[in-house]
């Protein structure tokens, strides 16, 4: 069943003041034009390299968000799950950006969870088939609501794992390091590409577009047998699995322990180092293979961009022949490209990818080669 047949959206579905998407202000096309304009302005020094944006097919531009981290508040009457604005929570139960699966699961929990304070829910986190309820308490709360009927309903919705994260100081940080309990189902799931992921691992919502960006990166890097590939900020190893099919040695670096465990499973034979990239530079330097015909780098950092020490290391020590950098922030990308250009890299192509249609987010794949 498509979502359109499940619920027909109307203008009134958007709560007033919701900052989640641009729907209340502009069309999908206007929204893309606005963010492209910002990217063009920010990346003006490389304007001739900027390509046309790659977008998802029209039917995937809404209801694609299957990974959420939302605030939860009990207003004395009902649970409200949504975006936090000052002390209020703007419920997103009817939002057109969120997938039908997420909306249905949120509605189920909002209807069955006991009220606060007996169930001190503060965050509702869903990563596709894995759901985490973050509880502001060190103790397991009342779980009588988790009946066989609820488990069956979750299963029928395609949910595979339900977690509690006991986090007495939840607030600025969503997750606690410890205090994780799998209360139903299994701890990991598999995405449509056959990659294993968990409740906290990173994942792009429109998998087809994420794969299209990796296709572009792979086509440019063109790793062949014997080339060395380094994949920085590698997540669950979507890139690593590709590079590993083409060549060895392949090395990834990733901060999240859960992502590292998944990456090792998804890309057997690749070396995956755990920790911040900047703190793994000594190991990366030791892993550099002088006999490899070429060194190639793929990097997909968070919004803060590559750590300055890492960019410096790439430019001075590693000096790969080619680099493909997927960035979700044009401002930090500009900073990183400027340094690399000053160190003798040519920015060959900048390809925008609209991974989050109708929101202000835009990803840009930068393709660079050593001059
Ligand atoms: C934008 S995601 C990219 C993940 C992966 N390339 C993918 O497409 O699935 C950034 C990843 O970097 C990780 N990360 C954040 N800061 C890091 C750091 N300083 N060093 C290493 N990894 C980091 C995050 O846990 C996340 O998995």
Automatic annotation (TrEMBL):
GO molecular function, one term: rRNA (uridine-C5-)-methyltransferase activity
Any one of the GO BP annotations: rRNA base methylation
Family: Belongs to the class I-like SAM-binding methyltransferase superfamily. RNA M5U methyltransferase family.
Designated name of the protein: (Uracil-5)-methyltransferase
Keywords carried by this UniProt record: Methyltransferase, S-adenosyl-L-methionine, Transferase
Active-site residue list: 328
Domain of life (superkingdom): Bacteria
Binding site for S-adenosyl-L-methionine: 204, 233, 254, 300
Organism field: Desulfosudis oleivorans (strain DSM 6200 / JCM 39069 / Hxd3) (Desulfococcus oleovorans)
């Amino acid at each position: 069943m498509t979502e359109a047949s499940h619920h027909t959206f109307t203008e009134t579905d958007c709560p007033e003041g919701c900052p989640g998407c641009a729907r209340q202000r502009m069309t999908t096309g206007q929204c893309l034009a606005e963010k492209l304009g910002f990217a063009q302005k920010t990346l003006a020094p490389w304007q001739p390299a900027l390509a046309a944006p790659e977008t998802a097919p029209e039917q995937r531009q809404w209801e694609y968000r299957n990974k959420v981290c939302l605030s939860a508040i009990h207003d004395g009457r009902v649970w409200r799950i949504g975006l936090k604005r000052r002390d209020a929570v703007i419920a997103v139960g009817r939002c057109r950006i969120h997938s039908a699966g997420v909306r249905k699961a949120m509605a189920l929990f909002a209807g069955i969870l006991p009220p606060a304070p007996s169930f001190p829910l503060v965050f509702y986190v869903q990563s596709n088939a894995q759901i985490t309820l973050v509880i502001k308490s060190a103790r397991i709360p009342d779980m009588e609501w988790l009946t066989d009927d609820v488990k069956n309903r979750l299963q029928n919705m395609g949910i595979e794992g339900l977690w509690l994260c006991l986090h007495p100081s939840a607030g600025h940080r969503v997750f606690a390091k410890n205090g994780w309990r799998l209360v139903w189902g299994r701890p990991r799931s598999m995405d449509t590409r056959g990659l294993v992921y968990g409740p906290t691992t990173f994942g792009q919502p429109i998998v087809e577009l994420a794969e299209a960006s990796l296709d572009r990166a792979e086509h440019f890097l063109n790793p062949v047998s014997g080339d060395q590939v380094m994949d920085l900020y590698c997540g669950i190893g979507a890139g690593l699995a590709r590079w590993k099919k083409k060549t060895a040695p392949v090395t990834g670096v990733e901060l999240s322990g859960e992502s590292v465990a998944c990456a090792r499973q998804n890309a057997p034979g690749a070396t995956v180092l755990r920790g911040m990239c900047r703190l793994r530079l000594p190991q990366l330097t030791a892993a550099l293979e002088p006999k490899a015909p070429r060194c190639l780098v793929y990097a997909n950092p968070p919004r803060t961009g590559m750590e300055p020490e890492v960019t410096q290391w790439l430019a001075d020590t590693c000096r790969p022949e080619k680099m493909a950098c997927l960035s979700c922030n044009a401002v930090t990308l500009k900073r990183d490209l400027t340094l690399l250009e000053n160190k003798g890299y040519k920015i060959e192509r900048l390809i925008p990818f609209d991974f989050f249609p109708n929101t202000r987010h835009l990803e840009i794949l930068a393709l660079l080669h050593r001059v």
